[in-house]
Design goal:
4 helices; EmrE-like; cell membrane; about 80% helix; about 110 residues; UPF0060; Small multidrug resistance family-3 protein; flat
Amino acid sequence: MPRVTVLRSLLLFALAALAEIGGAWLVWQGWREHRGLWWIAAGVIALGAYGFVATFQPDPNFGRILAAYGGVFVAGSLAWGVVVDGFRPDRWDVVGAVICLVGVAVIMYAPRGA
């Protein structure tokens, strides 16, 4: 897979994570933290946007894209917690996230025969 394609794919995964995790966080804030319906509405819109981002991935296989994205979601969720909520992951959180990202690399970018 060409480097430009891999870079595009990685950027799409990052955008998907931002939309999904951010959207879920907005819903959480609106409901659990009583910030109101506008927060929830913004979260629902972000979650809807997440659904479209995967369609731009260069690989045509929905199952592969979603399976690989799962690893990005795990690592991205921990990173979101650190940046936005002041979460302090322990070493096992980090080890788990690294394992997930290795899985992403294997699923998406391993050489495949024709």
